[in-house]
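Subgroup meeting minutes
Present: P.N., E.W., G.H.
Scribe: E.W.

1. P.N. recapped why we're keeping a running log of single-chain structure predictions: easier to compare across weeks, and new members can see raw inputs and outputs side by side.
2. G.H. added today's entry (596 aa).
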Amino acid sequence: MTSIERTAYPRFKRLITAHELHLFFSPTRDELERAAGATDGDEYLLALPLMLKSCQRMGCFPALEDVPEQVVEFVRRAVELPEGTLPVYRAERTAKHHRGLVRKRVGVAYDQAEARRIAEQSIRKEAAAKNRPADLIDIALEKVVEAGLELPGFSTFDKTASKIRTEVNASICLGIHDRMSPLQRTELARLPEKRDGDGTTLFNRLKKPAEGPSRSHLKNLTKRMEWLDGLGDSVVWMDGVATRRITDFAGEADAGDAPALRDYTPVKRLALIACLVHKARMRVRDDPATMFCKRVATKIKKAKTELEEIRLAEQEITETLIGNYRTVLKDIDADGPARLALANAAETTAEFGAQFFRRQPEDKLRDAAAAADVGYPDNEGLVIDSETGIPSLKPHRSEGLTPSAKRLEQEIKARMPERTLIGILSRTAYWVEWWRRFGPASGNEPKLDDPFGRYVITTFVKGTSMGPYEAARHIPGVSGHELSYTADRHFSLVLLNEAIADLVDAHARLDISQAWGDGTTVAADGTHMDTYLALFTHFIPCGVWEAVYIVEGLLENTSEVKPTTVHADTQGQSQFRHLMRVVSPYARGRSPRPRC
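Output recorded in log:
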């Protein structure tokens, strides 16, 4: 079963800000009047607005006991009911009547059969290109909402997506299997069993990335290309298969090892290996170009270094020749034109230039000394020794915190106690639920005993660059193999970016974040407190072009924060303009550029 937290199915989240309460759960005067006219008790008068606001926000009716207490309390105060009033329906007939009133008010229809039909049709259409159950459920949700229908229960979407996904995956794998010849199937089936020269399997050889940009490695790429092409024409195998499904199947095979492949059926095992072979054949044709560019870049860098060394050597020779020439003119041509020009320049400087340039700093120093003398009696920090006349500054001593500042400090410490780093990760994972983004490459639910704890610890270990086995020595209850297994098979760059987007969105929804702005104007430098501090997640060294990272951060942004104006320092703006001049011929007709 797919976890509801991994999907967009509407539900109450743990983190609900005051702004969201006022925005989504404040009944209007007309709604309160209609509720008062349709109810005859405090319990019903509270339950009906709760159902109305929940349906407006979620598109369905949650169980009243699942509504968070803070939402119930907020609506109770808005309706002006006594404390302790609870939303309860003592008769199902009354609840059904109220649901009908809410549907009429919201404008949704109750037709579960039609909703299931739309969901099944949309999931079957998209399953050919998408593999993750959560993505399929989200598409079905969108189509049902567009049809103006009340959403069925989550289990309905989950069972439909699981059933159709299994059928489509089996059809894709069988098609790949049937398009291979018997000899090709035999060769691919031997890859997880046959050993390479270094003792590892040939299946592991498929997953090896390209090595460094050397001539010997370039020759090895040629041999690798011949070996991969000898396995068969993977383009024929993948005929009619969506590119994204090939990528998902190849990623699932790449995340596993040879023993893990034995858990699959023979047909699916061959299909996964075939997709990995197809991706390896594509990559081996790109690697020579990448390697060539790296070698050219290395040569250019080396050439620039040698050119700078030649320039410095030539400059030293030139300066030596000029010095020698000056000495020759001074000693040999004592009465020549060069000597006379030097004497005239010295005379002009002595008569006018020296006095003029000397007078400027003298006047400034004199004014500064006079100002220091006038302020000396009141300057308690400056002391002049009576014997030596040497001035010195006393160390500045703070007058201490004011009573109001002390109270503020105590309140901040009480509300923000000291936390450990792993404690902060655990708390944000619980409230924001970013850990739900991680899971097996197959898209199925994790089969770990405690996925929450395992993902939090793995995030801590990977984020601190500690290493799984080193971390296992200091964290009881977990082994290095378990951490390494989770990091390799349940984490990926795509999933990590999705988790980061969840944190960015949660940060942007906080009241204190919205006090700084709505996120349309952001800063790409640490000198401004802005929403972009949470959005920009690249740490770059000094000396690199930050404009490239600004553009990359905007292009890869998948959060709800959509900046339109980026503030940068002088270097960032000049680099950004230069970058826009370079890419503008290729970016015409694309989305609007952000202003910088």
